[in-house]
Amino acid sequence: MNKIASNKKIMLPVTAIMLLALGVAGCGNDTDDNNDDNTTALSGTINEAGSTTVQPLAEKLAAAFTALNPNVKVVIGGGGSSVGVKSVTEGTVDIGAASRDLKDTETGLTKHLLAKDGIAIVVHPDNTAVNNLTIDQVRDIFSGVITNWSQVGGPDKAIHVMAREEGSGTRTAFEELVMGADVRIVTNAVLQNSNGALKTALSGDKDAIGFISFGYIDSAVKALSINGIAATSENGKNGTYPIIRPLYFLTKGTTSELVQAFIDYCLSDAVQQIITEEGYLSVN
């Protein structure tokens, strides 16, 4: 999806959603017009950081929430899932964002399931010969067993592997869902520090292959079918697409009224429409 275009697309739905969700964002008290004194206005700053997969979605949700609550500021940062876990654990942010499950060593945090997301295997749009790979073929390409496109029905050209950096939630989920416990991504893979950076780099290399969040798919790359299943939100929701992972907001300890109001807002049925519009998978 083109991110500039998505900003335009979201305006009307967000406006409608904000009108629908006033009760959720405004501290959730159902009052009539004469009971305004019983409604507490929200104010303050929320700091969030972490997964670059969650980041553009969190920015949309924050914009909608602050439009309803003009005395609130929500600061959204990236850095990757490990940064999100570390930051919320250390108390430097109110909310961490992760696009993977927590490790056994990452304790003391509460997970709030925001959405689910597919990981797409992507190639350059000019790679017209290869449209589908099996999970085994993907694993063999990223581990260096398959090194030439001709081995999977493409031209006689070397495959250029691109991947996310260590600590990326997208990489961790890819390793768990595709590579398995004992198989490693090839050491000569070109590493990128965000979904957007990988998409940009891959769009300039006709022989490259990489993996990105569903939310970043647009005309700059071509998403391959996996095991004959197209990389679409519909196939992610119906469970047929095989590479799906959770997206979490993370908190530590008791949350403030403001932080809890924002999380409740993001998880509400009405606001979950934004998630679908942005190419992610709603959990409601």
TrEMBL record:
GO MF annotation terms: phosphate ion binding
Recorded superkingdom: Bacteria
Keywords: Phosphate transport, Signal, Transport
Record-level GO BP terms: phosphate ion transport
Upper lineage: Bacteria, Bacillati, Chloroflexota, Dehalococcoidia, Dehalococcoidales
Signal peptide segment: 1-27
UniProt keyword annotation of DNA damage present: no
UniProt similarity note: Belongs to the PstS family.
Function in brief: Involved in the system for phosphate transport across the cytoplasmic membrane.
PBP domain sequence ranges: 40-269
Transport among keywords: yes
A Pfam cross-reference name: PBP_like_2
Protein name (Swiss-Prot/TrEMBL): Phosphate-binding protein
Annotated InterPro entries: PBP_domain (IPR024370), Phos-bd (IPR011862), Phosphate_ABC_transporter (IPR050811)
Matching PROSITE patterns: PROKAR_LIPOPROTEIN
